[in-house]
Amino acid sequence: MAASGARSVTEAEAARDRAADLIHRGRYDEGLTALNAVVATGDPDEAPRALRNIGVLKEDVHGDAEGARSAFEAAIAWNHPLHSQGARVNLAQLLEKEGDRAGAALLFREVIDSDHPVESPRARTLLGAANSTVRPPPFGRLTCSRNPTTW
Question: Does 150 map to a domain?
Answer without folding.
Answer: no
